[in-house]
Amino acid sequence: MELFYRVSFQEVVADALMLVEERELSSKHALERVFKKVAGKDREKARGLTHAYVFEIEKWRAKIDFIINSVLKGSSVEDLDLYLANLLRIGTFEIHFRKVPPAVATDSIIRVVKERFDFSRAKFVNALMHSIEKFDVEKALKRLKERDRIEWLSVRFSHPRWYVEYAVEILDYDETVRLLLSNNRPQRYYVRANTLTTDVDSLRDYLEENGVKTALTPVPDVLKVLEYRTPVTKLDWYKEGKFVIQDLASAYVAHVLAPEPGERVLDLAAAPGSKTFHAAALMENRGEIVAVDYSYDRLMRMKEKMKLLEIKNVKLVHADGRSFRDKEKFDKIILDTPCSSSGTYRQFPEVKWRFDEKKIKRIINVQRNMLRNAHENLRDGGEMTYSTCSIRVDEDEENVLFAINRVELELIDYPFSWGDRGFLEIGEKVFRAWTHRHDCNSFFIAKLKK
After folding, report:
1. Is 389 an annotated catalytic residue?
2. Which residues sit opposite 433 in a β-bridge?
3. Over the stretch 177-203, which tens digit does the pLDDT of each residue have?
4. Spatial distance between the Cα atoms of 342 and 356, rounded to a whole number of angstroms
5. Both 288 and 410 in a single domain?
6. Claim to verify: residue 218 and residue 300 sit in the same structural domain
7. Pfam families attached here (predicted)?
8. Binding site membership: which residues?
9. Residue 174, domain extent
10. How far apart are alpha carbons 370 and 376 in whole angstroms?
11. Which of 149, 208, 148, 147 is nearest to 173 (CA)?
């Protein structure tokens, strides 16, 4: 597939993978950047296929790298030039996952290597690709399972080893397998009615008329998408802001917080804005929401989305949620902190490879500083939600205990209407959703009071 002069499909995929890894962009935003400079009659077709390649390569990267490392003998894919490593990942993916004829996959990669590097590097890659073609993955995995069952799970289901170890510790082996399997299944889509402009019954009728089959959920303004003829993002009501795509557990946060019309609400980590916008709808555009985020670009995207959704009571503030203070205290606070995103692997497989224990400790420090600052911004008697899309107890229950014991917040015994309860001594008073149990992102919510 030729896109424009001397740029092949494999180069476009490799460029997107580079942005995902070096800039830590999502697959979606990496593709947006790459395709700004792509032209040609095959552009739209290539965009869809590129997204599929990038998404699947990130999902299966541990297994892909296991294959490459097994034939490298003595070194690893991490030792290679990153662009070259990504080309090898593309080739391996084509041969072992998409079942592209090996000669075709190898030739496509070699042509790019010759263009980008030199003949000696092309010779090296050609030899590797032939070894990759002949590599018996199932036989190697069987040997690995006999030697190290945790590493086998990590490679077989393509998850970081730390994640597998952690899941086995807090769940058990069999349930961890179910979680890993669920993380690798296609993302389940949920749509939330923008109740400023429509209601959930009207939305369901509209979707049905347009070939989208839905089901009701435990969250009253959210529908589960079961089947569709046309992607919901192509429908007029989506383009007009009458509904948004929002994960089920994420959409539960605003209902747990229950902001009232006329109240002052603070969102300390607002972008991309889903919970802010949901709170605004529940408040019927009355009162004030101060939406704080450290990313100016993301706030500007929120500004555009606010116009579409007809939201009028949100004030955007470019600031750090760890230190932001306002002149007046707030009645309610949404604190959906930055986290390891270990509950979102089905939706964003690239985040699997971005965290290790050292980085997670740093993010926990950020979370605790934001909890302290939330306490300072909350009026006496005010309420807040603390939420993450993480499976980890140290980001969830342990941080709530920190808020109780060190920040002097009180945990509210909220009557959660669905989901599971959590861990430790506060487990019965917090909310957890799991990908394999609830068909949404794994998620944590606690409601606190000053």
Report:
1. yes
2. 443
3. 999 999 999 999 999 999 999 999 999
4. 11
5. yes
6. no
7. Methyltr_RsmB-F, NusB, RsmF-B_ferredox
8. 269-275, 293, 320, 336
9. 138-183
10. 10
11. 149
